[in-house]
From TrEMBL:
The active site is at residue 103. Keywords: Isomerase. This is Ribose-5-phosphate isomerase A. Catalyzes the reversible conversion of ribose-5-phosphate to ribulose 5-phosphate. It comes from the Bacteria. GO terms for molecular function: ribose-5-phosphate isomerase activity. GO terms for cellular component: cytosol. Belongs to the ribose 5-phosphate isomerase family. Its EC number is 5.3.1.6. It comes from Hydrogenophaga borbori. Substrate binds at residues 28-31, 81-84, 94-97, 121. Pfam families: Rib_5-P_isom_A (PF06026).
Amino acid sequence: MTQDELKTLVGQAALHYVTPGEVVGVGTGSTVNKFIEALASMKDRVPGAVSSSEASTARLKAIGIPVLEANEVGELSVYIDGADEIDPRGHMVKGGGAALTREKIVAAQSRRFVCIADESKLVQTLGAFPLPVEVIPMATARLVRQFAALGGQARVRLKDGQALVTDNGQHILDVTGLRITDPLAFESEVNQWPGVVTVGVFAHQKAAVCLLGTPAGVKTLN
Ligand code: 5RP
């Protein structure tokens, strides 16, 4: 099976976690795009979605699902999103699509995070994937030095030769060379560095369920 087919498989499997009649939280990325495609089959039973990015909002609207503001709704029963890395305890690295801040906001508003990914995303220890960190641009040089002190090399993410600008008007640092053995402590520490908007470690908002696409079918990790 191709990676694309594995993503389709878990995108469809995630439908089982959507409660008919309830608003659903929707993440960002190529795996979530498969989930949104699958969601079209039950759009008459989904009153709306809270979306984590402009890209997912456009796709949800295109299939006829109303997109609601996070502030308009209360707690969501479920948030469905992908990940760049997942450890066996459900801690994740996210932000490859630069949507990490809104993803963390919607995840925090949801009772259950259901992570969907192909099995290549499962790792023993987080850190091989360059860690995305959304930052206020005036803090960039100092934050690069702070990551260097931890042994990491941080680079500003570029798009078309310019610093990428997120949906929130900020920049992304991608940090290589880290080995994140205590994701809860790491997330707490980096999040309080001045100028950090959001660090892409999702340990406090970890996945309750991971649906991993494998050639043998969907593997569920709880
Ligand atoms: C976007 C994300 C994505 O969930 C993550 O990058 C995985 O994306 P994909 O499903 O395309 O592999 O965190 O900010």
